Structures are given as structure tokens and as C-alpha cells.
Amino acid sequence: MAVHSQPARPVMLGQNQYGKAENRVVRVTRDGATHHIKDLNVSVSLSGDMDEVHYSGSNATVLPTDTTKNTVFAFAKEYGIDSAEQFAIHLARHFVTSQESIHRARIRVEEYTWDRIATSEAAAGPAGPDEPRHSFVRSGRETRLTQITYDGSSWEVVSGLKDLVVMNTTDSEFWGYVKDRYTTLPEARDRILATQVSGRWRFNWTGDEQKAPDWEESYEQTRTHLLRAFAETYSLSLQQTLYRMGARIIDHRAEIDEVRFSLPNKHHFLVDLEPFGLTNDNEVYFAADRPYGLIEATVLRDGCEARIPVDLSNL
Ligand SMILES: O=c1[nH]c(=O)c2[nH]c(=O)[nH]c2[nH]1
């Protein structure tokens, strides 16, 4: 029997990245008696000349993940945290420009919001001179997100939010849809529309510090437009509402070229109260948690490219 010798099939290293994930950094800024908090969860992911650490175990090009963690905390002290975006841009630039072996940095940030606890009537307004302003309550607000990617020449800034839960108790219909032999859904002329918004928006900023958006202002305005579009759209479907939310952001925020949403349709079913001799005039609902419709789409400025990943859980 002939023996066929096969050349060894080469095994190649593919895409790789490394860094320290979920650095929980809280920065307190003390402005006299008035304190300010930034509460972030920062994940660093670096890539570059990392073949040898995988192939031979040489660590000669590896900046330890422990160092990347230390850098996050040191930067919080040295430069402060004006915004999640600004902080992440600073970190990304540092890793790529300070280490020859690192060619690309991706910094992801989750931000948690804290509200001031009002200790008197005055505390709710501007701080009085002797007013202690150092007590906070973690807000039930959504989680704010940003992801910065820098490869030494081009920047990509994608910000957004998750877990923003909203509901309209009327001005929502759903009818006129395709029906086949499995369709049982009754047409709705007045239903609840509720969702837990996960959204991302991509900035057209190209790296010029002088032309950087006011990141805090941009976030608050974008959130406001999104909420107003949800509230003001008379909805014939969650798809239509999604489009209006994205379009309103693109129309009003020149710094944003692309918006993507992932919207679970949080179904609210009218409860049949007839067995109890009661009518239900759109008053009592069963809030189902699963299964849920899942409506996802990108809304783009005309002529712009879609770059936000289709699956937002990958971002
Ligand atoms: O807004 C909706 N869009 C759908 O595609 C859909 N499908 C469904 O069963 N209910 C709804 N609601």
C-alpha cells in the first residue's frame, strides 16, 4: 500500500486582541463642598504585533493587561473624566501612540448615573454656601455607552444606551398585516406600545480635537430627541416608531450619521375579565416578558455607510 506523505497543514493565528475588561472606576471631583461623580466601567482591548506571544510565548511586545488597568485609574486622577467619550479617546490615543507594538485600541465604556440627594429645599436648586453636596442616589436611568476605536490614523466613535424603558398607553395600532393559516393575532386599533431601548449612534468626528462635539450635551440632546419621537409618533407599528426615532436624531444632530436600534416589543395583553362579570376598557393588562417581538434597524444619513454591527450585543 502506497504511503502518501502530506505536508503539515500550516496553522495560522487569526484576529486577536487583549486587554483588561471592566475596570470599575469612580472619579470624585471636589469643587469645595459640592462634589461630582463619574462612575464608569471601562474595558480596554488592544491589538498589534502579537504573533510571537501566541506562537512562541515571547512577551516582548506585550504591555501587561495589569498596566492597562493601572493606566485607566491613573488617567482618571491625572486628567479627570469630562465625559466617557473624552476619557476613552485619551486612553485609546495613549496606548496606540506610546507603544510601537500596539496598532489599534478599542475602549468600551458603560456609564452609570447618580442623582444628587436633596438634603433641603435649597439643595434641589443651586448649592448654597454651606450646603453639603456629597450625597448621591444611583438613578434608575438607562446605562450610557460608548466605544472608541483608534488605529493610529482613523477614529470611530459609537455611543448609545441600553435599558431605557418607555411606554405609550395609547396612540398605537397594529393591523393590516399578512395573515396565513397560523395567524391568530387580533388587529389592534388601540394598544400599549412599550419597549426597552438599546440604541447606538455613530459620530462623524474624524479626530480633530478642535472640532470635537460637546459629548455630554450631544448625549442629552440625542436622548431627548429619541424620547420625544417615541412619545410624539402616532404608531402603526414599532418599526415605524423606530424609524422616526432614528430619523429625528439624524435630522437634529449634525454630528451623528448613523443610528441603530434593537427594540424588544414588550407586549401588554388585555386581560379577559368577562369570567368575573367585568368589562376591560383598556385598563388592565398582563405584561408578558417573553416571547417578545424584536424589531431592529439602522437609520442612516443619506450617502453615509452603515458601520454599526447588526447585532448590538457585539458592541
Ligand atoms: O409593532 C409591531 N410590529 C410587528 O411586526 C408585530 N408583529 C406582531 O405580532 N405584533 C407586532 N407589532
Automatic annotation (TrEMBL):
Reactions listed under catalytic activity: urate + O2 + H2O = 5-hydroxyisourate + H2O2
Keyword Nucleotide-binding: no
Pathway(s) annotated for this protein in UniProt: Purine metabolism; urate degradation; (S)-allantoin from urate: step 1/3
Keywords associated with the record: Oxidoreductase, Purine metabolism
Matching Gene3D superfamilies: Urate Oxidase
Pfam families cross-referenced by the UniProt entry: Uricase (PF01014)
Record has Transmembrane as a keyword: no
EC number: 1.7.3.3
A GO MF term: urate oxidase activity
Domain of life: Bacteria
Family: Belongs to the uricase family.
Function: Catalyzes the oxidation of uric acid to 5-hydroxyisourate, which is further processed to form (S)-allantoin.
Protein name, entry field: Uricase
Source species: Streptomyces caeni
